[in-house]
Specification:
CATH superfamily of the largest domain: Hypothetical protein, domain 2
Radius of gyration: 19 Å
Strand content: 5-15%
Helix content: 40-55%
Shape: globular
Order of helices and strands: EHEEEEHHHHHEEHHHHHHHHHH
CATH class of the largest domain: Mainly Alpha
Number of domains: 3
Strand order of the largest sheet: 1-5-4-3-2
Length: 297
């Protein structure tokens, strides 16, 4: 198998694919087999280079966001113990640019589910409704287009272990397929309007909308708050507050983490999800300045 090569300094392929932002890549022959859009792809990392086949270099660079100035982004993070620990732990992790429909559909299915379960649902949808391709000796499945899901029945979707999410996915697929939700033209909308449009779709609340904005629309300020992030933010930044409202959390995260909040969120999420509570406490506690500020509120 002939592999192309591009230099990828400041990039960690395994951390990026294993950080809970994308769910279909599978380890294979020292690398990973999966799809980028409708194309089957194989990627592996050797030092500061990525070797790949199945897709052109431009797609690899775009998909893995190799144009993001990662060092600059990390320097923009708040200078507190928790973020320093997360940035160190997640060095090289990049926000993937996912296909819009695939990302939206996957995160509609993610509601109240852990990463392992989301992977299972994604694979079930791909096996039942997607296409099949081979790359580097591995069989991979493409994600089904919106019109394919729209023509399915709710029962068929439930058989992919979606549960109540099946109805929401079906209704949203129909809106995308018939043009009521034109995901591509929404790229030109400002953040607030894009979030509002996404939240009009069945199965999309603030968390899912922010995930789609971050992972599909390149809105790096978007800060999804799930149970992991809520726990981390309360523990690290509101240690003395017994009750913090969802609105207050959203306001704090938007203001405190700023322009690259999406990266900060992903780093905190990956650290929290892949380390033990004791290890997280050793890696970083709340900033003293943040603690003092919370005492005064």
């Amino acid at each position: 198998m002939k592999l192309s090569r591009i230099r990828t300094p400041d990039f960690d392929l395994a951390k990026t694919l294993g950080s809970g932002q994308v769910f279909h890549w599978q380890p294979h022959e020292g690398g990973f087999a999966g799809t980028i859009g409708d194309a089957a792809a194989f990627v592996e990392q050797r030092g500061d280079s990525v070797l790949f086949s199945g897709v052109p270099p431009k797609k690899v660079r775009n998909y893995f966001a190799l144009d993001h100035p990662l060092a600059e982004i990390c320097r923009s993070f708040p200078n507190d113990e928790a973020m320093r620990a997360a940035a160190q732990f997640c060095r090289g992790l990049r926000i993937i640019r996912q296909p819009k429909w695939e990302c939206l559909a996957t995160f509609i299915c993610s509601s109240m589910k852990q990463v392992a379960h989301i992977r299972q649902m994604s694979l079930a949808l791909r096996k039942r409704f997607g296409g099949t391709a081979r790359i580097a000796g591995a069989e991979v499945r493409t994600f089904p287009p919106a019109d394919r899901i729209a023509s399915a029945t709710e029962q068929a979707l439930r058989e992919c272990a979606l549960g109540y999410r099946a109805k929401n996915l079906l209704l949203t697929a129909r809106a995308v397929a018939n043009g009521d939700a034109n995901l591509e033209t929404w790229s030109d909308l400002p953040d607030a309007e894009l979030r509002a449009r996404l939240c009009e779709l069945p199965g999309v609340g603030a968390k899912v909308a922010n995930c789609v904005m971050l992972f599909a629309y390149d809105r790096l300020r978007a800060f999804p708050i799930d149970v992991w992030i809520e726990r981390v933010v309360k523990e690290k930044y509101f240690p003395l507050c017994r009750k913090v409202t969802s609105a207050r959390l959203r306001e704090f995260c938007s203001e405190y983490f700023g322009e690259h909040g999406g990266y900060a969120q992903q780093y905190l999420f990956h650290l929290a999800r892949t380390t033990t509570p004791r290890r997280r406490r050793l890696l970083g506690g709340p900033s003293r300045s943040i603690v003092r500020r919370k005492r005064q509120q």
